[in-house]
């Protein structure tokens, strides 16, 4: 029996205790079109040093993002707040699961300092799920946004939040802090939620994104999914319609990559031509911006995408 240890954080406990007794899943060989640059350049090392100096957690490392070499080369790190341990146990995710520790009251200041030192023009802030907190961590998100604004007023801010399920008033707290982009990922089509994202509710997530627009129409909204989890093409197209009904501005679609043999298997590798087709169809449905490719991830090229979002809104609405 294989046991998943948290080697990333030098922890002898299982990283995914809920997955330890699951049978191993097959791991398919990656096709030629999925190739990434290995990390290790001098600029990557500089980003790594700043992250370590401030004792920060990044989703780039915790989730095993394939784009870490490219992004950290450009000093683009996505910060994961409220610890490295998630209260959910999604079948696709490599972030550690368990009972999280207390919030770090100094974290907003540390994040703001790192953003300033990296010279970020656009920053993405995400988090683990914190179902143990009364507000799901909404106030902590707001504090981080305010700290960055105070230290780097010209930096635009994108948040990638949990669903705040059963956390009355939490979304309103985050929106009131006025991030430039509010992202919440659907991750997969509704028929896969019980096996892929069992702690979440598809239509709650759709409603969350719709509510952001009701509260503040100036905030861009964004959502993303993975393909290759066994979804059908028509399900992906229906998901696009659901997001447009919630007036979501930006859709990302990327290939699911299996972190370990204990995670959900890759059912198939979607071809670049299929991704191009998804991008074309989504654009025709009215999204301001669509990014669809095997290596597309929520925060990949986020700064450049924000500039494109603004330009697209001006072209369409004149404002």
Automatic annotation (TrEMBL):
Location of this chain's protein in the cell: Cytoplasm
SMART domains assigned to the protein according to its UniProt record, in alphabetical order: Elp3
Enzyme Commission number(s): 2.8.1.8
Organism: Alsobacter sp. KACC 23698
Residues reported in the UniProt entry to bind [4Fe-4S] cluster 2: 86, 90, 93
Gene Ontology BP, a term: protein lipoylation
Binding-site list for [4Fe-4S] cluster 1: 60, 65, 71, 299
Keywords for the protein's UniProt record, in alphabetical order: 4Fe-4S, Cytoplasm, Iron, Iron-sulfur, Metal-binding, S-adenosyl-L-methionine, Transferase
Residues in Radical SAM core domain copies: 72-288
Keyword Iron: yes
Primary location: cytoplasm
GO molecular function, one term: lipoate synthase activity
Top enzyme category: transferase
Pathways per UniProt: Protein modification; protein lipoylation via endogenous pathway; protein N(6)-(lipoyl)lysine from octanoyl-[acyl-carrier-protein]: step 2/2
Free-text remark on how the cofactor is bound: Binds 2 [4Fe-4S] clusters per subunit. One cluster is coordinated with 3 cysteines and an exchangeable S-adenosyl-L-methionine.
Catalysed reactions listed for this entry: [[Fe-S] cluster scaffold protein carrying a second [4Fe-4S](2+) cluster] + N(6)-octanoyl-L-lysyl-[protein] + 2 oxidized [2Fe-2S]-[ferredoxin] + 2 S-adenosyl-L-methionine + 4 H(+) = [[Fe-S] cluster scaffold protein] + N(6)-[(R)-dihydrolipoyl]-L-lysyl-[protein] + 4 Fe(3+) + 2 hydrogen sulfide + 2 5'-deoxyadenosine + 2 L-methionine + 2 reduced [2Fe-2S]-[ferredoxin]
SUPFAM superfamilies: Radical SAM enzymes (SSF102114)
Cellular component GO terms held in the UniProt record: cytoplasm
Name of the gene encoding the protein in the UniProt record: lipA
Protein name stated in the entry: Lipoyl synthase
Cofactor: [4Fe-4S] cluster
Taxonomy, superkingdom: Bacteria
Family, as annotated: Belongs to the radical SAM superfamily. Lipoyl synthase family.
Stored InterPro entries: Aldolase_TIM (IPR013785), Elp3/MiaA/NifB-like_rSAM (IPR006638), Lipoyl_synth (IPR003698), rSAM (IPR007197), rSAM_sf (IPR058240)
